User: What shape does this take?
Amino acid sequence: MKINVITGKIEKIKTDGAVLLLFEDEKPGKTAERVDKALGGTISRLVKRGDFKPKPGAVHVLYPEGRSAAERLVLAGMGKRSEFTLNRLRQAAGKAASSLRTAGAKDIAVVADVPGPGPEELGQALAEGCLLGLYRFLKYKTDEENGRKKNIQSITILTEAAASVNALRKGVKTGEIISDSTMMVRDMVNSPSADMTPTIIAAKARELAREFGLKIQVLERSQMEKLGMGALLGVASGSAQPPKFIILEYRKGGKKPVIALVGKTITFDSGGISIKPAENMDRMKDDMSGGAAVLGALRTASALKLPLNIVGLLPATENMPSGSAYKPGDVLRTLSGRTIEIMNTDAEGRLILSDALAYACRYKPAVIVDIATLTGACGIALGNEASGMLGTDDVLKRKIREAGEKTGERVWELPLWEEYYDQIKSDIADMKNTGGRAGGVITAAALLSKFVQKYPWVHLDIAATSWTEKDRPYTPKGATGIGMRLLTQFLRDYEKE
Ligand code: BES
Ligand code: MN
Ligand code: ZN
Assistant: This one.
């Protein structure tokens, strides 16, 4: 979808739907004031009576009936001025755009005169809010009535300040790239596991590599055997789908050390022999969300031409039960040489990551960030509003935390104290793959930490944030695409201070 940035006055622009942003504790801005006048004071009356409260996420559709050029007018609440964030702006834009689509608008115009952020940030946030808010997953809908016809075809971002047009355009361009990558991730995660196998993901990675000039290598089972990736192979042993170990390299950073991104890519997690209950098992197609986020971040990094060296690693396999599947009680020999006793074949994410993290160390990376739908326990600890963060390096954690705040993909730290390691001690191997119910997020991360040597490392547990059961302002029900924007922001800011 094309986003245009133009100068002009909203009252004069012919559009199916105009969007005005209103703060809760502030008189309408200059533009809104003029529109209000043109409407004979409708907006101020609505607000004064309390029929419309400009709270975050609130929207109200008005019909100017010829008193202003727009067919429809959406008032979008921004909350309190003092609490302004770019995320609120994305939320308001997302809500406004999707409610205009529901109303039947084909083109929309958003007024971009919000004091506070610079025009570039503003353009990016508005583009992201609109595009991500309008996202739908229609690949498997054949019923035309199901909304395909009802779609917004163009978005105009409108400013009265001619001087800010170029910066707005630049921000919009960035927002479009980031949104495209996020939607790619959402599409991959929403897709049924039968159509998102390790082989299909490898093909998708090859396609991206070709399009964006990345170096790619895909290790097949025989190569994994030669290298000794016993953990990934163990998890893959029950599946009819061949595993793939996908290595993507983006090198635009000269001699700088690489940033290693590792994404859990379980294309379906049945639990294996320790099989999961039937209820909600369909959700386990999203167990490749980490890998998809890493793919998306590499796509974005190269589209934005970031001056960095980045390697993305995706250990990809299904976790299935069968006669050849790995079993509780087995001991797997990982790429690092360390052994892991299997207590539960459903704790497979940490196993494939142990091989991938060990592989990442071969690059002598500046930092390692892994991202994984790793534990149900993470949702118990933090709910659905934050991803879990654990790691070994304070600077890296701060950077990730800040990227989370900026993007609205927030993280919250859990401790990784020595005492927790007792829980994963094994009687017969170097460690075991579960540590009991207590502190499940932490003991999973504790296992991972054994495979990152001395490299600064952060682990992100996105098990409870990669999917949403409810519509959110710019994230409809289903795959959220989480991690893509977080990692991208981290990369964009990586060299700042
Ligand atoms: N992929 C799951 C984690 C998960 C659970 C993601 C729910 C999204 C929603 C992971 O592989 C898993 O099964 N973890 C187990 C670990 C346990 C056996 C120690 C879990 O969380 O129950
Ligand atoms: Mn599992
Ligand atoms: Zn899993």
Summary: The radius of gyration is 24 Å. The mean pLDDT is 96.
